Amino acid sequence: xxxxxxxxxxxxxxxxxxxxxxxxxxxxxxxxxxxxxxxxxxxxxxxxxxxxxxxxxxxxxxxxxxxxxxxxxxxxxxxxxxxxxxxxxxxxxxxxxxxxxxxxxxxxxxxxxxxxxxxxxxxxxxxxxxxxxxxxxxxxxxxxxxxxxxxxxxxxxxxxxxxxxxxxxxxxxxxxxxxxxxxxxxxxxxxxxxxxxxxxxxxxxxxxxxxxxxxxxxxxxxxxxxxxxxxxxxxxxxxxxxxxxxxxxxxxxxxxxxxxxxxxxxxxxxxxxxxxxxxxxxxxxxxxxxxxxxxxxxxxxxxxxxxxxxxxxxxxxxxxxxxxxxxxxxxxxxxxxxxxxxxxxxxxxxxx
Length: 352
Fold this sequence. Notes:
By secondary structure, the chain is mainly beta. It has helices at 91-94, 107-110, 128-139; strands at 32-37, 40-50, 60-71, 78-86, 117-125, 151-156, 171-177, 180-182, 185-199, 216-228, 233-248, 253-268, 270-272, 275-289, 298-313, 316-330, 338-350.
């Protein structure tokens, strides 16, 4: 609502951005999961509110997660995850929608992986006490990221979820994090990085854009995270640097270019009986490409978001958020394109 510029868009955000907003279903997911054996766990999550690339149809079914965890010991302190799942890169990328306060993930970190997922195999390790702490950070309403181990190491295709592998090389990723209890506060620092070779999809190329013959580009990133959980005041900050494919308007070509950016989120937790209220402010910045968009679209983002999440009870939440944005997003077909504006969004969500 109250959109000031219909040409202000964000392909990786929800579909209400842009000229035609209105009501929409953002996600409709029903999860199937189970402990088949003390060392074997499975998780299956389809989404029935997806939009397919190249189609004007909405609310199509698309696979989000399909993986199994194999415990290497009885307590599953050491475990291997095989299948399509989230790649352990970034705190906000790991958060589910019911734990994340802003309606969209930040461009800087989320540009690494469309839908945060890929096909691969990942090794996770965490002591039992820390695994319980990861779980309580979510259950207790502190907006945790879930249990992706203290240490995560893995290999994945690198083309992002639901897209075919286009070369014979794997991406590799590593993440180290630890939730520290300091008096009444919990602080979680983290470091993470990945490296690989990304192949730009020919279906995402404009006629006339210049590119490498094999469409292969270096895809490397490293990020740092610091989280102070809201008790009652919280801070969440992440920053990443790296290089990857990006459209260069000066040469009309896709090149390997440097990228950098991050965000800082300030939030507060108010509790009254069963109700919880989380006012928040996020500032974000990004300079770089988005490899999974047309011509590895070039971005320059400056954005401020002010909002509040209200939970009258645990199974329902309502988020109201106003965004002020300045975005340059350019590809071969759309150059010299910088848009500024603001918009108000409301999102109601049930969790079960």
